[in-house]
Design goal:
By secondary structure, the protein is an alpha/beta fold. The chain has a domain at about 1-155 and about 185-210 and about 255-270: NAD(P)-binding Rossmann-like Domain (Rossmann fold, 3-Layer(aba) Sandwich). The chain has ten helices and twelve strands. The relative contact order is 0.15. The protein binds NADP nicotinamide-adenine-dinucleotide phosphate (NAP).
Length: about 290
């Protein structure tokens, strides 16, 4: 099938290009130069012109803190841009898979969020992504929307890469231990997205790796595995801290766990535990 992937230079977009191509799909990677979601008026016609079987929308304004200072741009990309991608998919007779986030939730509870839960965002990034989901559903009710969380991979910037850099540079690293979620490897997200497409389902789906952890425990595991693999290690102390000691512009959900009861039987394979996927990702990283 012919697959248009937006945000093709991002961590998930790049992995999606590789993963779909490995399945034999004809992949059309579109970066900001080809499809700029901050100019939504140009996007629908451009998307339609590709005449793809599927459009995978991995493009997003993802700078969570900066979004508090430039909400207009965040909403233009994540809400209006997402709507324009959906309009383009409709116009070009393409199916659409749109990527969403755990940050649409407040994280003020202790039971995993289901696909039926409505957004309760506490940041402007989260609000822009929630309104983006709604815009996509309005235009294309049959669109696939995949909500994921705590994304990392070999490509692009993410928490794992930051920890690898810090462990080589610093003697002490402080990491918050009161935000709970599930680290999720881009390669696993792409496998799940491709499987959902094969299964011809539509609607909203949660996907993360299995297991639940804190950023502190995640950091501990990254450093332990990387050190075993011979990564340069200067760090001597990894300290857990509460979020209030790591001030940030945007509020983040304390509890970001997504319920996967809906997706497990549909995928038909065992979703990897986050720790196993972290091992796999680090094995692919040049240390
Ligand atoms: N990262 C996470 O932890 C996480 C968690 C849950 C869900 N998600 C969702 O997963 C999806 C992929 O995120 P990611 O982690 O891969 O983020 P990423 O690495 O920041 O990639 C985002 C991509 O979007 C592109 N982009 C930004 N503004 C754009 C614009 N105006 N027009 C076109 N492209 C634009 C970026 O291009 P440039 O490279 O040119 O900036 C980049 O290629 C997003 O929908 C995000 O909300 C991410």
């Amino acid at each position: 099938m012919r697959v248009l992937i937006t945000g093709a230079g991002g961590q998930l977009g790049k992995q999606a290009c590789l993963g779909f191509a490995a399945k034999g799909d004809e992949v059309i990677p579109a970066g900001r130069a080809e499809l700029d979601l901050s100019a939504p008026q140009t996007v629908a016609d451009a998307v339609a012109a590709y005449k793809a079987d599927w459009v995978i929308n991995c493009a997003a304004y993802t700078q969570v803190d900066k979004a508090e200072d430039e909400p207009e741009l965040a909403f233009r990309v994540n809400r209006d841009g997402a709507r324009a991608v959906a309009e383009g998919a409709k116009q070009g007779n393409s199916r659409l898979l749109h990527v969403s986030t755990d940050f649409i939730f407040a994280g003020d509870r202790s039971l995993p969020y289901t696909e039926a839960d409505s957004g309760t965002p506490i940041s402007l990034y989260g609000q822009s992504k929630w309104e983006g989901e709604q815009a996509v559903r309005e235009v294309l009710p049959e669109a696939l929307i995949v909500r994921t969380a705590w994304v990392y991979g070999v490509h692009g910037n993410n928490f794992v890469k930051t920890m690898l850099r810090l462990m080589a540079e610093r003697e002490e690293i402080r990491v918050v231990d009161d935000q709970i979620g599930t680290p999720t490897w881009t390669a696993d997200i792409v496998t799940a997205m491709r499987t959902l497409i094969e299964k011809e389902v539509s609607g909203t789906w949660n996907f993360t790796n299995e297991g639940v952890t804190s950023w502190f425990d995640f950091a501990h595991e990254i450093i332990s595995i990387a050190a075993q693999r011979g990564h340069l290690r200067k760090v001597r102390r990894l300290l857990p801290i509460p979020s209030r000691e790591y001030p940030s512009t945007a509020k983040r959900p304390n509890y970001s766990v997504l319920n996967k009861e809906k997706i497990r039987p549909v995928l038909g394979y065992e979703i990897p535990h986050w720790r196993d996927s972290l091992h796999s990702m680090l094995a692919e990283m040049p240390l």
